[in-house]
UniProtKB/TrEMBL annotation:
<protein>
    <recommendedName>
        <fullName>Lipoprotein</fullName>
    </recommendedName>
</protein>
Length: 118
């Protein structure tokens, strides 16, 4: 009986977690460092509605299920999932949050410019 009570308490606590905390927990569970994960969670909670966050979560879960390595979620995977949502604002806000939180996509390399001294 006590074991059942502890399990219920854990589920109740996670159900009461804020969207920011849930996003951060999900991201850290897939290998994103704690500080950037908290940052992304805060940014998305501020800029998206609960419905938009739920839609992003559904699409991210479906994307992970198709991933050859579903145990690891990269920022590229997260951006790709966001781009699959019908609401374009979600993809924009995810990209902005990644940029503000210093999470560069793995396939992204800033261009190098050579400047003449002349």
């Amino acid at each position: 009986m006590r074991k059942l009570f502890l399990i219920a308490a854990v589920f109740t606590a996670s159900a009461c977690a804020s969207p920011k905390d849930r996003i951060a927990e999900g991201l850290t569970g897939y290998g994103v460092a704690e500080a950037p994960a908290q940052c992304v969670g805060a940014q998305l909670q501020r800029s998206l509605s609960l419905g938009q966050l739920q839609e992003l979560g559904r699409v991210a879960s479906a994307t992970r299920a198709r991933d050859p390595d579903p145990s690891r979620l990269t920022i590229d995977d997260f951006l790709r999932a966001a781009s699959e949502v019908r609401d374009p604002r979600i993809a924009i806000e995810v990209a902005k949050a990644a940029g503000r939180c210093n999470l560069s996509p793995l396939g992204f390399a800033p261009a190098k410019y050579e400047m003449d001294d002349a």
